């Protein structure tokens, strides 16, 4: 194999940083300011300071599990069985699939509803048959995955660069409407109320910043590109992704919060509207009305790709284990993509209103797999011994326990 040139490796690293950003910034960003900003200024400040390190350290640990595995070229499902044994490894594989796959279904529903609303409400067109529209949209997104990672990365970049630009543009557009006195001048909720507010908003941020479904395939790409230097280069790429997410996403959250104020955010929550739709109603601005679905479509499609990577990885591993015999890799991959397409198409046609339920059920599993499992592996697995006794490990474990406990509290 010919060694990759420095220019090519930098291009691959940059492509993955953008792809991971796109995986994280899904449809949840449209509701994120309402959830994150509703508790006032101090919880939002604390959450802003915490989420960057939380995102970076947790995803870095998960990537290291794959990058330093003695089984080069094997994904997280195989690595988990090597590290934890067959039974525990299978539990991890099933949970990995169960945490990601429902979100893929919801993205099929979301893209159909968003495009349907755009055609009917903004463009004044006819309502297209839902079976046909959803099949075309879900099929097009899945077809990109069928043609491989190179096309997926290329399409993601086409989508995510405008998404980054639009998030920044809307955030800046709202600056003249900031009501600093209304937001910063609100009565302080008190220390314990602030701690409670931060506790409850952490799972929302963890879910919104989560790009773990793509980490396994990203780590394998780092192995192919950088060889023994994969873990270090993965850390660099993940730092860039966490920085992009923190700067652009949290600036968007802050700008929306300052423009709407605590009362405006409460009104948006009461109306159950995405924050951009509420902004368009409040400011009566046609630009926001048209930008909202564009941002939603770009966010949904880019995040769909990353989640399909993880879901297909888990599904393929489950099929191999159930059949317990060698299978042609390309045939298995195409079969899994066909399953994902058909079930996501069905979900889009049925149009279930279960987004909050799915996020609530997936949330604890994602937090456990992303925050706690890698820390357990670092403590137990000899290959990960160099990463022990780091202060960041304690930080990740505490953050994971906080996120899981808050989700469980919210459920009950």
TrEMBL record:
Q: Where in the cell is it found?
A: Cell inner membrane
Keyword annotations for this protein, in alphabetical order, are:
Cell inner membrane, Cell membrane, Kinase, Membrane, Serine/threonine-protein kinase, Transferase, Transmembrane, Transmembrane helix, Transport
- On the tree of life, the source organism's domain of life is Bacteria
Membrane topology term: Multi-pass membrane protein
- Annotated protein name in UniProt: Serine/threonine protein kinase
Ranges in a coiled coil: none
Annotated GO biological processes are: amino acid transmembrane transport
Transmembrane annotation, as ranges: 12-34, 40-62, 83-108, 128-147, 159-178, 190-209, 230-254, 287-310, 331-349, 361-378, 390-411
What are its GO cellular component terms? plasma membrane
Entry's Gene Ontology molecular function annotations: protein serine/threonine kinase activity
């Amino acid at each position: 194999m010919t060694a990759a040139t420095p220019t090519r490796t930098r291009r691959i690293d940059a492509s993955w940083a953008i792809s991971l950003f796109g995986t994280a910034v899904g449809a949840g960003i449209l509701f994120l300011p309402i959830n994150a900003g509703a508790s006032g200024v101090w919880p939002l400040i604390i959450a802003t300071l915490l989420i960057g390190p939380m995102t970076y350290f947790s995803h870095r640990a998960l990537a290291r599990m794959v990058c330093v595995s003695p089984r080069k070229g094997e994904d997280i499902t195989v690595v988990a069985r090597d590290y934890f044994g067959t039974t525990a490894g299978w539990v991890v594989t099933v949970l990995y699939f169960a945490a990601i796959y429902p979100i893929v279904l919801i993205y099929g529903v979301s893209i159909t509803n968003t495009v349907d609303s755009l055609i009917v409400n903004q463009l004044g067109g006819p309502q297209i048959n839902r079976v046909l529209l959803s099949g075309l949209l879900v099929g097009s997104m899945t077809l990109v995955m069928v043609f491989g990672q190179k096309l997926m990365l290329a399409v993601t970049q086409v989508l995510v660069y405008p998404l980054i630009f639009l998030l920044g543009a809307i955030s800046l557009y709202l600056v003249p409407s900031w009501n600093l006195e209304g937001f910063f001048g609100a009565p302080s909720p008190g220390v314990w109320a602030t701690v409670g507010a931060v506790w409850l908003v952490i799972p929302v941020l963890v879910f919104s910043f989560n790009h773990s479904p793509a980490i396994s395939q990203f780590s394998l790409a780092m192995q192919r590109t950088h060889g023994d230097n994969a873990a270090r280069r993965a850390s660099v790429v993940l730092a860039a992704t966490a920085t992009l997410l923190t700067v652009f996403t949290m600036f968007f959250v802050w700008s929306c919060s300052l423009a709407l104020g605590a009362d405006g955010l409460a009104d948006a929550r009461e109306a159950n509207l995405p924050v951009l739709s509420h902004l368009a109603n409040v400011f009566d601005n046609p630009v926001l009305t048209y930008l909202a679905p564009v941002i939603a479509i770009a966010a949904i499609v880019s995040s769909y790709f990353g989640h399909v990577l993880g879901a297909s990885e888990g599904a393929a591993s489950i099929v191999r284990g159930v059949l317990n015999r060698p299978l042609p890799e390309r045939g298995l991959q195409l079969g899994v993509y066909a399953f994902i397409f058909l079930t996501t198409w069905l979900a889009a046609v049925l149009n279930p209103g279960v987004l909050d339920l799915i996020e609530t059920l997936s949330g604890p599993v994602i937090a456990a797999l992303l925050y706690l499992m890698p820390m357990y592996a670092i403590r137990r697995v000899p290959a990960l011994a160099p990463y022990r006794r780091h202060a960041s490990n304690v930080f990740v474990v505490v953050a994971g326990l906080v996120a899981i406990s808050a989700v469980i509290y919210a459920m009950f």
